[in-house]
Structures are given as structure tokens and as C-alpha cells.
Protein 1
Amino acid sequence: MITKDGQNYIMNTYKRYPITLKNGKGCNVYDHEGNEYLDMISGIACCPLGHSNEAIKKAIMESADGFTNISNLFYTEQQVKLAKKLVEVSGMEKCFFGNSGTEANEAALKLAIANTKKHEFIACKNAFHGRTFGSLSATWEKKYRTKFKPLVSKFKFVEYGNTNAIENTISDKTAAVIIEPIQGEAGIIVPPEDYLKEVREICDKKGVLLIIDEVQTGNGRTGTYFEYLSHSIKPDIVTTAKGLANGLPMGVAIAKGIDFEPGDHASTFGGNSFVSSVALTTIETIFKENLMENAKNIGEYIKNEIQMLNKKSIKDIRGKGLMIGIELRKNAKEKVAEFISKKILISVVHEKTIRLLPPLIINKGEVENFISSFNEVVK
Ligand SMILES: *Cc1c(COP(=O)(O)O)cnc(C)c1O
């Protein structure tokens, strides 16, 4: 019934799985019949603290008692505290708040243009930066782009992981290089260890801004709050969204050394006090409960356990922290239904790669449950 109504009343932008979910607790979610599923996707990396977390519930209730939005014509304690916290954890200087990943990247692109007066960008092949026109122009995949051309011009695409390609493509018209520290939608592609550091050096040498898109890698997922922090560099702009407010809509671009002027950019909902207080609670809880350490340890545990199953059908296991890709030799899409029948939610990216993005609170027992089902589903 709900599925049928969904098909009737909701636009056809997603291929949805054939279950309808009702509620959740921790790493589990429940359908209308009360069946329990282990959530290994967490809203596509959106819920680092899992579902119906007590601290998040409290933050939501407190906001409901005050106000949810009074616009950006005023400062609010919630937004200011969040901005200060994000500056502290990122080592950057100033925040712009929007409502999604694509908006965070739009802000970053406009900020780069406003400050360099240049209009060319370099992005990577297979990159995903979002689906509004600016971010879509930085996104590689043909099936997302072709129908909507002309896009914003002057994006040049280079091979991911190749620093020479960036150096050779930068011109005196280049405003910025935009990269993901680990490519998510491309199938969890981890670049060579020195890549980010070398890209930073090239951008410095050529006087070009570096935008790092941490919409998926950020918020503790890879074991540090932002992945660039584990490479001892800083971008000029970092963007994040997905896990920032534990599933509520929020995106942010955090910059260093550059700023907007009034009128350059804005967002009515951006940084509203309701979502800001939930985001602040999310960050504080990630630190207080050592969830980044947990992401590192459990991530390694998952990769080792899968490795030990020694399956011929597995081509590669990769990723960092709790952002893991298991590439099969064949198309993995039909595996989703088999996992659902074992009461486990996974997603598949780039046809062949099983992608795991569980809540950062996941424990060993839950992982063991996943591994034993994996062993049965992936022959
Ligand atoms: C998901 C994602 C985006 C887009 O985020 P939305 O909130 O869906 O607009 C941008 N960049 C990366 C790296 C992503 O994974």
C-alpha cells in the first residue's frame, strides 16, 4: 500500500528497494511488520550516531521548545556555537551554512570565483559533487550530465590520483581544484597516500585554491573528523554535509583566508537554529564517545574478516574507517535483495561494489552478524 502510493505520488528519481521502513534504534531499523534490519548504509552516511539517539532526541526537543528558524538576519547562539566548533575541529576559519552537499559545493565554487576573479575549475574523472548546476558541472558521470547540458562551462576533468595531470591542466585562468579525498560514488576509490599532500603543494605553487569535498568522508567516517586532517594539510575550502547533523538537512563550506561579501551568496534555511543545535550535538557526541576511534577499529575489523573469507568472487576490498567498498567480479546489484532477505541493508555503487557506510556506533557483535550473512550471500 505505502509502496504503491509512493510510486503514485513521488517522482521517479530513485530506484527504491522493496521494503518500507518505519522506525529505528541504534544500528537497527524496522519495517511495518516489525522486522528488524541491520543498517549498514545509515541513510548514505547521514547518521553517524545511528537512529533515535538519546542526545539527538534531546537536542530536537529543546529546539522545539524555543524556535526552529528566525532567519539569517540575526545571529543565534546555536549557529554561532556550531560555527565555532566546526572551525575548531577543521583548523579552518569561517563557515557558510546551506542545507545539503550540493549546496555546500555551490557555495565553495562561488566563493572561489568571488575571491580569485577566475572562472575555470579542475575536477576529477568519476568525481561526484552533487546535482545542482554548479556541482553537476563538477560531476563526471555522463548519465547525470548529458540530458542537462549546457552546464556551467570551464570544468576540466583529470585522472583521479594523478598529480601530474592536475599540474599540467592548471592555467592562469584556473580558480580552484575540487577533489574528494576518497571518491565515494565512484566506488570507494582511495588515492595514493601522498596524493592530497602533493595536490596541496601544486595548488600553492600555482596560486590556485584547493576545495576538498568531504560531504561523504567527513564527520568522523574515515577515523578523523575530516579525512584531510590525516594528511597534515589544509584546503582553502572544505565542504561537508551528509553526517553533519545526523540525518537532518545541513551542508557547510568552511574556508580559510577568504570570505564572501553581503549579497554574494545566501540561504534562507541555512544554519537555522534547529538543525545547528542537532549538528553541534552530533559533533560533540562523536568526540565524547570516541566514535572516530571506533570507526578506525571496526573498519579494519570488517576488512580483515572479509579478506579472511577468501572469496574468489571478490576482486578488491578497500576504503578507510567505516567507508568500505567490496568490489565483486560480477554485477553486485542483485545482491541487495539477497541481503534484505537476510535482514541487512547495504548499497551498491558503480555496479560491482558493495558499499558499507554503517553508523559510527556499530559494534563487533553487529559486524559479526553482517559477516556471517555476507558469507552466505556472496558465494
Ligand atoms: C552525496 C555527495 C554530494 C551531494 O550531497 P547532497 O546532499 O546529496 O546534495 C556531494 N559530494 C559528495 C562527495 C557526496 O558524496
Protein 2
Amino acid sequence: MAAPKVAVVGAGVIGLSTALCIVEACPSCSVTVLSDQFSPNTTSDVAAGMLIPHTYPGTPIHVQKQWFKETFTYLFAISNSAEASEAGIHLVSGWQIFKSTPKEELPFWSDAVLGFRPMSEAELQKFPQYQFGQAFTTLKCDCPPYLLWLEKRLKAAGVQMYNRKVSDLWELHSEYDIVVNCTGIGAHQLVGDKKIFPVRGQVLKVYAPWVKNFIRDGDGLTYIYPGIHSVTLGGTREKESWSLSPNPGTTKDIFDRCCSLEPSLREAQDIKVKVGLRPSRQSVRLQREVLSQGGVKLPVVHNYGHGAGGFSVHRGTAKEAARLVGECIAALRGSSSGAKL
Ligand SMILES: Cc1cc2nc3c(=O)[nH]c(=O)nc-3n(C[C@H](O)[C@H](O)[C@H](O)COP(=O)(O)OP(=O)(O)OC[C@H]3O[C@@H](n4cnc5c(N)ncnc54)[C@H](O)[C@@H]3O)c2cc1C
Ligand SMILES: *[C@@H]1O[C@H](CO)[C@@H](O)[C@H](O)[C@H]1NC(C)=O
Ligand SMILES: *[C@@H]1O[C@H](CO)[C@@H](O)[C@H](O)[C@H]1NC(C)=O
């Protein structure tokens, strides 16, 4: 078999990082990214990009922890390199605060971030309505710069990127040997997966360069995440809402909630409002499938459904998807000439 032709559908953080892991694992593969939107027009561009895992109820915790650790290690190396600012990756310290002590005082990822410890009395004094808190240092991706950095790495590795809406994965069978499905919420329509649903998130991006530490309410709804150029203020979680237009009442509510945690934000300038639909599912769909029609087969690898925590696990899931692509290639090579698989 000649160099396998692989199409990755989707150009959010999952599609781009999966394409990169495939070329890294298989330099002889010909990899193409097909997507109807690229940065700055994806859900991934809206995200705050904080590395704080979300929990997927349908995926074993040790697997989620492994995905997070791989992602953290990968981005930590970038944060310690001369490329850190171009890639938009930096360390950020701060506090996660709770109105009452949570059931699980130690989240599963506590030893995967840096310096995780309970907050001191002195630190808690800043938040009179909160009783308990955790201090730690984690990484943050400034999302549009990181996506552009991934695109640049892909171009340097010879990956082609085309603007294309795929209405059915099968339409790619005559052009590609293997298709990887990284379409996020687009999978709802594309593969008819009704287990995936949108969780709408509205955030504000503001100019407030004096804010250096993150603050996150333990319920995950109100947060202040400083990036290199702007501070992300959140947020909302609206299940099954498909609306991409900002809601002005919600904007005011988010701003007020964040100002009550960090009053200096009243002086913030240049407030921009963004909305994204988190591609949510009980578990990330990371598996092989073989589509077939009339004896013709097309191996597919799915990697979608990362919900509220796609940045936190993207590198780990991309590596697993690339491993599954390797299995597809081995199966293609092992099959008798002519018939695929
Ligand atoms: C407000 C908000 C804040 C967030 N904050 C964080 C955070 O702090 N930390 C964190 O880890 N995660 C966060 N997330 C979650 C994170 O954004 C997602 O998990 C992640 O972006 C999902 O990436 P994706 O590549 O799967 O999806 P997307 O970025 O949506 O990419 C999907 C791609 O597929 C393409 N596509 C879809 N259908 C088709 C089709 N039929 N044909 C061709 N192309 C198609 C799209 O154009 C797009 O390029 C946040 C999300 C939101 C909304
Ligand atoms: C993003 O969307 C805008 C508005 O539809 C469009 O003009 C722009 O070309 C898009 N950018 C990319 C990179 O596709
Ligand atoms: C991607 O997977 C989703 C979920 O199974 C599915 O609905 C969609 O059709 C798939 N996309 C393609 C192009 O197969």
C-alpha cells in the first residue's frame, strides 16, 4: 500500500492536535484537515483554555487522568520554551473556592497540577462568603494563538488544510483511506449521534492586565481566568441551547458575579462577549468503526464529545486517536490486495 491518505474532519483543538499526533506517529502518512470553519470561528476559539479537567461520567477516572497528564506534560514543555508566547501557553496560579467544604476535598487531578494545597486563612480572607478553597498552579492556553500555532506546525509538516463541509463521512471514501471524525457538536448532525448535546457557554473577554491570578467558584460557573492579552470572565452552562447570540442580561450577570469575587474588575475595559456550544456527551467518543457500502469499506476513527474540558485533555485524546489510526493502517496493510480491511 502507498502512503496512507488520512482525512481529519474538524479544525478545533481536537482536530488540529489529532492531525499533529498522526503526522508525528506516521511521518509517511499523507494527512489532510477538512473543516467548514477554522480559527477564529470554532468553539475552541471561545474557550478559556484553562487546564482544569471536567469529569466525564462515562469514562474511567484513570483514563481521564492519563489524558490530562499527557496534555499537561506536553503544554508544560511548550510553556518552558521560546515558543511559549507565540503558542499562547503560560502557567497561572490561583484559587478554587467553595461556599462549603466539598465532598471530595482532593479532586482526581490534584497531583497532576503543580503545588496543590488547601488555601490558608489569610488567602480565604479575600473571599468572605467562602469557607474552603484550594490553591494551585496550572496551565492556560490562549485559544486563538494556540490554534494558529497548531496550524503552523501542521503546515510545516506538510499537512494540507481545506475549507469543506462534509455532509456524510462516506463522501470521503474514494479520496481517503482513513477518516478521523473530530467535528465536535457538528457530530450531532454529521453522524446523527443523539448522545451528543450542546451546553451553551457565554463568556466575556476583558482588558484588565492587573489581574494575574485565576479565581474559580467550585461550582464551575463563575470564573476569572487571566490570559496573556485578556481576562476571560465566565460563565454559563445552558444544556440543549443552540443559540450563538450573546444575551445582554447574561452579560451583566456574569460581569456582576465576577466583580463580586474581584471588585477591581469594575475598571475593566474593552469588554467583548463570546458564545460557544460545548460538545457534551457522557464520555468522549474515541473509537474505531468501519463504514461499509456495497462491499467497499472505510475505516473511521471518532474523537469527539469533549464537552466542557476539551483543552484539558486534548493532547491525550489526540495521541489515543493517532494510535487507533495506526491500528487502521496495520489492518489495511494486512488485508489482501484489493479489498480494504
Ligand atoms: C464558554 C466556554 C468555555 C470553555 N472553557 C474551557 C476551559 O477553560 N478549559 C477546557 O478544557 N475546555 C473549555 N471549554 C471546552 C472546549 O472549548 C471544548 O471541549 C473544545 O473546544 C472542543 O473542541 P473540538 O475540536 O471538539 O470542537 P470545535 O472547536 O467545535 O471544532 C469542531 C470543528 O469541526 C468542524 N466541523 C463540524 N461539523 C463539520 C462538518 N460537517 N464538516 C466539516 N467540518 C465540520 C467545525 O467547523 C470545527 O472546525 C469551553 C467551552 C466553552 C463554550
Ligand atoms: C470567520 O468567519 C468570518 C465571518 O463569517 C469570515 O469572514 C472569515 O473568513 C472566517 N475566517 C476563517 C479563517 O474561516
Ligand atoms: C462523526 O461522528 C458523529 C457521531 O457518531 C456522527 O454523527 C457524524 O456523522 C460523524 N461524521 C462523519 C462525517 O461520519
Protein 3
Amino acid sequence: MYAILASLALSLALSSNAFYLPGAAPRNYGKGDQVDLFVNALTPMLSGKDDAKLVHDYYNPKLKFCQPEGGPTKQSESLGGILFGDRIFNSPFDIKMLESNQTCQTLCKTTVDADEAKFINDRIREDYALNWLIDGLPAAEMKVDLRTNELFYDIGFNLGNDDEPFEQSPALNNHYEIVLRYHEYSEGVYRIVGVLVWPYSIGGDQQGDATCNTENTDPLLLKETSSQDIRYTYRVTWNESSTPWATRWDNYLKIADPRIHWFSLVNSIVIVIFLLVMVSMILLRSVTRDISRYNAIDMSEDVQEDWGWKLVHGEVFRSPAHPMILGIMTGNGAQLCSMVGVTLVFALLGFLSPSNRGSLATVMMVCFSFFGCIGGYVSSRVYSSLGGMDKRKNAFVTATGLPTIVFMIVFLLNFFLLIANSSGAVPFGTLLVIALLWFGISAPLSAIGSYFGSKHGAIRHPVRVNPIPRQIPPGPKYLRPWSAALLSGILPFGAAFVELYFIMSSLFASKAYYAFGFIALTAAVMGITVATVSILFTYFMLCAEEYRWHWRSFLIGGGNAFWILAYGVFYWASRLSLDSFSSVALYMGYLFLLALLDFLVTGTIGFLASYWAVRKLYSAIRID
Ligand SMILES: *[C@@H]1O[C@H](CO)[C@@H](O)[C@H](O)[C@H]1NC(C)=O
Ligand SMILES: *[C@@H]1O[C@H](CO)[C@@H](O)[C@H](O)[C@H]1NC(C)=O
């Protein structure tokens, strides 16, 4: 088993290296070498205005951008990049290293009719941004952080301008000032370390020779009544930079304000320390007191008077209802948990360089497939420990259940994307690759895991189960399953709240968010919180002579998923205004998927932690 795991880890490490290399190897240019400019899909900028979640292909026929000779060709992209809506094509820009400095060049002339003008104007009003890539770097606008006066690069730049005085008819940006920052690596060898674009709208005559004069010109307003010519122009400026290639991403990844992350992290750590102190007080003090009293009573008196959690010693390991579903959920949760853990470790080690777009999603999917063996193993062992007999069915559903559900949701979402005609829709071929990855690698590995799990068999329990179940006295209200789940979910949710906000904004506004350090720490804090809260509630439950803790500990662990769901709906209602039905369906679909996966992961942590604690608890007392 360990040999298999080790070789899996090795192959994963190697393959993730392979993910990393294409984007990570520096590219050297000599003077006059061709520098390719690739165009990615248009995305809405997050400016609090109108966030349509849809992305549009750059070469959407209605946008009328200049096409390269022979039509656009698609550039190869990673699986994750495609999933996240990357649609990268080549472009007609003719850029040569260190040549044509500051020369005004015409890209092409094109004509838009009234219909197309309306389409473009609508996209400008929705604050769509252009996304270009040069040498793996996204084109950005240089901005100043108003609070700190620091310069930072904001990825993407505006399609047009609809601020004052252009609210009525927006101005289309048809001129691009491109500043390419280069670093001289050695004599005659150059590397690109920064891509900045300032878009301008230059109106007036669109037919004659271009001057690229950006000052004192009227903007280009598109009439929605008749057809009209547009001339696209650009000017490249080569600017020497002292930034070495290795740190070229630093300007892009400046976290807007790291203080808020620190604040949230300190906040979560305080919560965790508070919790740990509380749990250790309760569990260590009262439990050791209980145990010594239980064991003392036995020695001094013949008649045994039981109280507290010892009363249910004959019940705690009674099989819960639906042990198979619980086993399957735990197995899948463990699989997801390992996936998240390994992905975060890779991210922290720097394997998932942002220079290789989409690598995060790719690594996550590959990890998930390979950790099928962990899922199968955990599921099968938990299932037999809970007294399950139908091991084959358990192995089968573990291997296929979750992938099928997730796949169905993704398929449905994709369907909505297709309806909305968005280029974010996953192509059929990619869906096929994912299905192959899941059902071709994950499922067999899961079956192998189940085989080893059932060979190792059930976990031995320290106390026997009574033949006749006990009556359960009515317990306090807060220990009822749903109130306990909601109550206990607040703490882990509170610990993760701020990071969640940033992840949401980056997911739904296509902004780079790479504070992996903060995410990893937050995930660790959340895991510890979930485990301690579940143990605490399980202890309370057993003290109240409520012995049906299996399902409840899972629910208590996963309780934060309900808060995440509620928060997502709140975020939608307060910050996003998605008007079309398909955008709302998409948002809700992603949100549901996120909450579902979170429920499985944290529920598994809660259940396994409680299982461990219950076994420890009942091994410590003497029972005749
Ligand atoms: C390009 O032009 C700008 C502005 O005139 C100048 O600062 C820069 O040094 C020039 N770059 C090269 C490589 O000549
Ligand atoms: C070129 O770089 C220098 C700093 O290295 C900067 O001050 C200047 O504004 C840059 N030029 C352009 C056109 O961006």
C-alpha cells in the first residue's frame, strides 16, 4: 500500500513538474525576434456595476476585432485553463524585439454596422476588459493604490469608456499604447518582464494615415443607427527594466491590501486558540475526572451506578442508520481532503506558478483522480467498522457516486453556458477528457483502495454493543441535529470568511488571486476548528445520553457549508446583479458545488475526529 502511495506521490510530483515547466522556462529573445501577442476571451471587470458572468471570445464576429491573416488559430492550453474559460488565439500584431520603438502602426480597418455597434456599446457599458498575453504575461494597466500610493499592475484593460461624459454613447478604445518592459539578461539576450497597455479612443477621420496622436483628439463614438469605419492602431514602446525575469510576476500579484488578510488570519487564530483551550479544559479535566470516578466506583462498591457518558457505553458503537452512505461520504471526503492538501502544498512550494494559467485546476483534477485509492480505502474501512456487509456495492458507489454527481452538475452548467453563447462553455472534448480521468483512473484506483480497505477490515471497538438499544431521554434543544450543525458551523465559517470573500471575487470576476499562503493557513485553521468543535459537540451529546453521534458529527463538521451557501446567496443579492437567467443558474450551480464539496470535506474531518475521540474515551474506562 505504502509503495503504491509513494510511487503515486512521485509520479504526481513529476507530472506537476511537467505542468510547471512550459510556462516556467524563461524565453530568450534576440534583437528583431518575433514577439507573439495572444488574445484571450473578454471578461467583465469587477467594478461593482454590472457583473455579467459571461465571457466572450475575442474573435466573436460581432466584436469585429482585427483578425490575423488566414483566420485566428487557437493556442494550446491546459485543461484547467479551458475549464476556466481561457480561449487563447493568435493575433495580427507585428511586434519584433526592440524594433519599431514608438512607431505608430495600423492594425487594420474595419466597418461595424448598427447592430454590431449596439453589441459593442453594450459590452462597454458592462465594463468588459480585454485580456492579452505576451510571453505568458498578461497585459495590464498600471494603477496607483490610492491608500498606499504604490504602483501595481491591474490585469486586463478596458474595451471602452462609459464614464462621464460618455454615459450616453460610450467611447470605444481603438488605439493601444503598448509598453513592453525588457531585461537584458546578457549581451544581446533579452527577456520580457512586463506588459503594460494604455488604451485610447481616437476619433475623427478613420480612413487616412494614422498619427496615433492621443492628445487633443475626439473620442470614437459608435453610432447605433448606421454603419461606420473603425481604424485600430497601436504603438509599441520598449522600456528597459531592472526587474529580473524571476520576479516579473511580483508586480501583478501584489495583494491589494495584505493587512486585511493578516487581520482575518489573526482573528481565526484567536478563535482556534480559544477553542483549543476550551476543548482541552473540558475534555482533559472533566474526562479524566469522570474516568477516575468511573473506575473508582467499580472498586469500592459492588453495585455499579453509572452516569454521564459511561451510561451509553453499550450503545456508542451501534451501527448508525445508512452506514453505507456515511462510509461513501467519508471516503469521498477523504479523497477531496487529500486533494486540497496536496494542491495547497504544491501551491506553497511554488509549483503552481501563475505563469502557467490553469495549472491549479489541472493539478486539482489529476490529484482527485489519483486519490481515488484513498477514497476507496477509507470508505471501505469505515463501512465495515460501522457493521456494513455489502462491500462490493460500497466499493462501486464510492468509485462512481461523487464523480457522477459532480459531472452532472458541470454538464448542466455547461448547458446553460451554451445557451448563453458564452465561450466559457467547456468544449465537448474537454468534458470527455475529464470523464476519462475520473472514470478511467479514479474509479479503478478507488476499487483497488476498497480492496485493501476490506482486507484490513473493521476497526476494533473498545466496548461491546448491547443487544437491546437504550431509550434516549429528550436532550437540550441545541443538540438537535440541525441546530447543532448550524451552531457549530459558525466558528469555522468565521475563521474562513475573509479568504472566502477573496476567493469568490477572484472566481466570479476573473481576477488573479494567488495568496496561497493565506489560503493554506486558513484551511489549516478551519480544519482544526472543525475537528475540535465536532469532538466537543459529540462529548456533549454523549453526556446527554444521546448515542447517535455518527451522522450528527458529520453534520456538525459540515455545518459551515450551510453558512457558505447562505453567504453566497447574500453576496449575490448584495454585490452582483446578474440579470439573465443563465447567469443566475450558473452562479447558483457553482455555489452549490462549492458548498457540497466543502460539506463533504469538513463533514469527514468532523466525523473522523469524533470517531477517534469516542474510541479514546471508551478505551479509557473499565467495563465489566
Ligand atoms: C524607446 O523610446 C522611448 C521614448 O522615446 C525611450 O525612452 C526608450 O529608451 C526607447 N527604447 C529603445 C530600446 O530604444
Ligand atoms: C520606462 O521605465 C521608467 C523606469 O524604469 C519609467 O519611469 C518610465 O515611465 C517608463 N516609460 C514608459 C513609457 O512607461
